[in-house]
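Next comes this protein:
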Amino acid sequence: MCGIVAYVGNKDICPLLLEGLKRLEYRGYDSAGLCVGTKAGFYVKRAAGRISVLEAAIDDKMHGDKALVGNIGMAHTRWATHGPPTECNAHPHMDDQQRVALVHNGIIENFASLKQFLTEKGHHFSSETDTEVLAVLIGHFYQGDLAKAVQLALREVRGTYGLAAMAVSEPDTLVVARRGSPLIIGVGKDEYIVASDAAAIVEHTTQVVYLNDNEMAVIRPGGFKTMTTDDIPVTKAINEVEFSLQQIELGGYEHFMLKEIFEQPEAIANCLRGRVDLHEGRVVLGGIGAYSRDVVRARRIIITACGTAWHAGLVGEFLFEDLAKIPTEVEYASEFRYRNPIIEEGTMVLAISQSGETADTLAALREAKDRGALSLGIVNAVGSTIARETDAGIYLHVGPEIGVASTKAFCGQIVVESLLALSIARRKYMSQNVLNEFLQAIIKIPDQMRKVLEQSSSIRDVTAQYIHRENWLFLGRGYNYPVALEGALKLKEISYIHAEGLPAAEMKHGPIALINPGMPVVFVATRGSQYEKLLGNIQEVKARGGKIIAVASEGDDYIHRVADHVFTVPETIEPLQPLLTVLPLQLLAYHAAVLRNCNVDKPRNLAKSVTVE
């Protein structure tokens, strides 16, 4: 959500900043802008809409002014919070004396009281944003030392921020700071590039410094220094980014979402690599090694997450209760953080997030830790805030996920939960023979995924028959109930079709009233413990004229008699079925979006990493 790119070095700066913004487009935005420090002062350009609009405006300026060069600058993509997505509200923002420029991710919660204070001091404002208030506040404190002015301003601020600031009178200085919104410093050869996501950095360097909350950096051409926002020096380690530029390119696919759907077999193989020892018959999870005894002794598990990660958490609830026999509950992070949760001794909290930066999940994690819970993170982004703040954790290792609608991260999260549940179960109740059966099944999943993905064109053909229908139902039971929720979410996210996911048995407690002739109803109806119950639910829909789209087990001849359309998945152990049954639903949503001419990778109003409440 929102994106920052800033640069200090000797490269052609405008193309570099624009290219960096394009690599952050997947995070979600509705306006963009940049500020370049030139010999003549600041050049600032902002535009509502896509980066291409900003780029065209800059090109017009550059054709008329060959002097638009500089070695320091910053750029931003905004996802509107305070004020609509207009040019006036786009970043960068200047203070009212035009001395300081600022780009900012996050929300300044006390902006109204700060704005009133500054207004009474004679300052004025030209936008509706909280960011301009922060820019004017920095300008209010500015007396020739930008770093000191930023520190003084941040002491008055409540809320979250990842920010970069420049001052006209300090043309070689960039000041950056973070609290609750990620910021990374890329360290290159005689250059530094700052970004809210490593995707904007890897083209230039793989050496990065991760800022923690309440830390800042002052960057100049000759080097940088880091400190807390209270001006206490800190020494930061330089880390290696674990993914390459090639991994975030389209690679011949039309959209990132399609690429990531088809990457899932390899992504899950990578997720499993080194973690399943078939020879010894055991699960190896090095990320929790120091806390493995505490994990096994956990008497209660709370899973906290948002969106797709929450659906993966629901699958985890089944896994931990079914396999490890540990009472488990799944909490929306946005609700958990504002309740008065009961955290008893022996409680373990799992925070699940693809980005590792989800604001609500991070806040819920901190709440649980403050109350004494053992905290584990299940994240994809190495070095992310959740990864650093949990007691221990397990990385997904599924590679960067660029498409806003999560696909391979969802499956990676389920794989990690499965391995964790099996690891605990073996130490408590599960026999070696049963564990071996699970391990043999899970290593087959990547090849079975490839077989499911071969049906993409037939799924497209079926989807084409129903894209005019604006209401869909997705139904499943047991382990496949969360898959139904995820299928409905995917369709909503990228095709803008209203869809509702439900446990199949709950349909007749109200939602059955929605069913009318021709309404598409998707059943996740693989063979399992509740298969016969699902067949009864299918008959209830058919009796009311609904059209049945079934995801079923290979070799199930009966389902073809009762369903209008069938997509098949190979047989596997019931707890692992979600890894296969979700794939047809991802493809269905993708093809629906394409057929309806929607922007698949950048759906409206959504952001990849939700770093504000």
